[in-house]
Amino acid sequence: MLFEAFKRNREERLDEAAFLVSSGDRSLSISWKQFTDDVATAAWIAGRRASGRKIALLGENSYEWMVVHSACLFAGVTVVPLETGLSADEIVERVRKAGIHVLLHSMLYLEKAREVAKRVPGLETGSLASKNIEAILADAADAALHSSDGLWNRDCVDTERTAMLVFTSGTTSTPRPAELAVSSIEAFCETAGTALEMRAGDRSLMLLPLYHIYGLCATYAMLARGVALGVCPDFRRMLAAFIRFKADYAFLVPALADVLASKVMQYGGSFEDLTGNPVRWIVTGGAPLSRRVYERLTSLGVKVLGAYGLTETAACYSISRVSDEPRACSAGRVSCAPGVETAVSETGELLIRGPNVMKGYFGMGESTAAVFDEDGWFHTGDRGRIDDDGYVWVTGRISRTIVLSNGKKVSPEELEDKIVSLPGVMEALVSGEGENREILAEIYASVGEMSVKRSVSELNATLPVYQRIDRIILRDTPFSRTASGKIKVR
């Protein structure tokens, strides 16, 4: 489905924009012809130089990053996206754990790549946009595009092989490499394509980090529909990207959605007043969306849609439909992709099985067995429910549930959502401490300690006794977050 969509766009939208890039104060387009020519060339090289090997990608969002990833996806080469914020030590660990043979990087991460190469004998490295790479591409282009076995002369690609190893976010556990197939991405594309109004010629942004499964799948879903993507390598410039590229909609994580809403509100009016173009919808996924952020976005004239998924499910479990009435802070409707099944266990855990689910954790048989049951259901580790209309409501991670000394169970996430709705509170992390599992709230706020304590006291008065916050700690700095915008839980 994905490969066929690329071929169709190549045939039907040859001269139309696949990507939009900034050049000074202008926006330049990269056509579907150029994009698919470049993918075919890179696939030809990968098939001959990297067959049977694993290629890691380390770099900010860029056109070149997507060319290489697409080429590996269709050429049968396993690709491993790496988070740009990793230290050299962490990259070395992942290179060894995943069995990576080649590390391709952007020039921003040249020194880090060199440090990794020194410590991993036999690891090959190369830049995504160096003169050497450009020369290799130029030499291979003619052969790749005119060869009888060239990429776009094929009828199909193997969608069931292991196409990617994507490391989990490591919010509450050690990051693990999930084995995902092309069919996993296709399930997301099918779900998003059915739920959302994405049309050829629309404009959006390649804003979420491509090393994160949600950002990567969202990018492929839009490309499959012929949407032109404005390349935004730095989220701090996302408002400028909305204005420059006239984005019709976007996929975001809640943390970025909050930042975007704040920037727009500084200018007053709506998104359309500021950008000159109505933003039809924003899908937030990767982390729970607070009611405060939901209300800020809707007040700016944006339809806010929820989504839910994990790395292990290729970010695909549920997504809201544009045609439905908004349901504040829900995680959307269960996936409609063929073969995807969802359920809730007797203990309230969300389950899923189907083509979107990973094959397992690479080289980690025991960890894989621990998350699949005998009927093939993948256990997400999240508490939640599915209502009669198929909408999903996620209430938190099972591993974070606070079990009090009296046996009562408290969801930290539900309390955190209430706390961040208090005046001046920006971030909160709730946990249980001590033998009695007293409830502790660590808070980052823009107001003083007395104001926070007063607001928490007022909140406690509305809560059942067993859910009340026993102690608070005020932070001077924001919490560390994962690529998907989730607070890293100690």
Termini distance?
40 Å
Helix fraction, binned, reads: 25-40%
Average per-residue pLDDT, rounded, comes to 88
CATH architecture of the domain at 179-353 and 379-400: 3-Layer(aba) Sandwich
CATH class of the domain at 179-353 and 379-400: Alpha Beta
Rg, alpha carbons: 23 Å
CATH domain topology of the domain at 179-353 and 379-400: Rossmann fold
Record the strand order, biggest sheet. Answer: 11-12-13-14-15
Strand % is 15-25%
Determine the structural class based on helices, strands and strand pairing. alpha/beta
Q: How would you sum up the global shape?
A: globular
Any idea what the CATH superfamily of the domain at 179-353 and 379-400 is called? ANL, N-terminal domain
What about the largest sheet? Answer: 5 strands, mixed
Q: Number of helical runs?
A: 15
Write the topology of this structure.
Elements: H1 2-12, E1 17-23, E2 26-31, H2 32-49, E3 54-58, H3 63-75, E4 78-82, H4 88-98, E5 102-105, H5 110-119, E6 124-127, H6 131-146, E7 162-167, E8 177-181, H7 182-195, E9 203-206, H8 213-224, E10 228-231, H9 238-245, E11 249-252, H10 254-267, H11 271-275, E12 281-284, H12 291-299, E13 303-308, E14 318-319, E15 333-334, E16 341-344, E17 349-353, E18 360-361, H13 365-371, E19 378-386, E20 392-397, E21 402-403, E22 409-410, H14 412-419, E23 425-433, E24 438-445, H15 449-460, E25 471-475
Parallel strand pairs: 1-10, 3-4, 3-5, 5-6, 9-10, 11-12, 12-13, 24-25
Antiparallel strand pairs: 1-2, 7-8, 8-18, 13-14, 14-15, 16-17, 17-19, 19-20, 21-22, 23-24
